[in-house]
């Protein structure tokens, strides 16, 4: 008969659970960052566009270098074009961060609208297997997409910052919740 030792603080990943103080500190720091972002969402929308621009430039540069490393794999020209596209998009975001934020917000609105419609259609197709959850998720996506697109271009100045702030707040609350869960505490 096999017995299992449940006294370890290792979770499903096999890594030890972070100490309680680290979980609390991370939760508080993320909540503080979220509140800071929500305090000036226009500024952090522009900061997000700049960050995405730098990320695109680095990713594009790596893609171009990778194309030369793997020249014999095929698709060399496509990798070069993709890398150049990333670099060009990054340069646009850095040179015109407000315009870049508008473009990113518009694309986000379109993606939410289209993915919402797809989720509603999938939910309708799976009505018998609790498809209403997928339909509700799709309706929320459609609503969010419509709010962004109908309020455009004004929404382009605050949506990214607001989403970043809400994301940071929810992660902070998640870390604090994780800190106080009895299952996360060592025995």
TrEMBL record:
Protein name: HdeD family acid-resistance protein
PANTHER family in the record: PROTEIN HDED
UniProt cross-references to InterPro entries, sorted A to Z: Acid_resist_chaperone_HdeD, DUF308_memb
Membrane-traversing stretches: 20-39, 46-69, 75-94, 101-124, 130-150, 157-181
Cellular component annotations (GO), alphabetically ordered: plasma membrane
Keywords noted in UniProt: Membrane, Transmembrane, Transmembrane helix
Organism: Bradyrhizobium uaiense
């Amino acid at each position: 008969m096999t017995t299992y030792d449940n006294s370890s603080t290792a979770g499903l990943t096999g890594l030890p659970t972070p100490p309680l103080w680290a979980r609390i500190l991370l939760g508080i720091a993320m909540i503080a960052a979220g509140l800071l972002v929500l305090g000036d969402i226009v500024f952090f929308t522009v900061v997000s566009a700049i960050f995405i621009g730098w990320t695109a430039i680095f990713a594009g540069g790596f893609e171009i270098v990778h194309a030369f490393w793997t020249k014999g794999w095929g698709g060399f020209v496509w990798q070069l074009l993709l890398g150049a596209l990333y670099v060009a998009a990054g340069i646009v975001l850095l040179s015109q961060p407000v315009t870049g934020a508008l473009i990113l917000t518009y694309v986000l609105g379109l993606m939410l609208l289209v993915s919402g419609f797809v989720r509603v259609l999938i939910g309708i197709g799976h009505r018998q297997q609790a498809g209403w959850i997928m339909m509700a998720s799709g309706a929320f996506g459609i609503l969010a997409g419509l709010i962004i697109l109908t309020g455009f271009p004004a929404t382009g100045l605050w949506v990214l910052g607001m989403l970043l702030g809400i994301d940071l707040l929810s992660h902070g609350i998640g870390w604090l919740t994780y800190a106080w869960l009895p299952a996360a505490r060592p025995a």
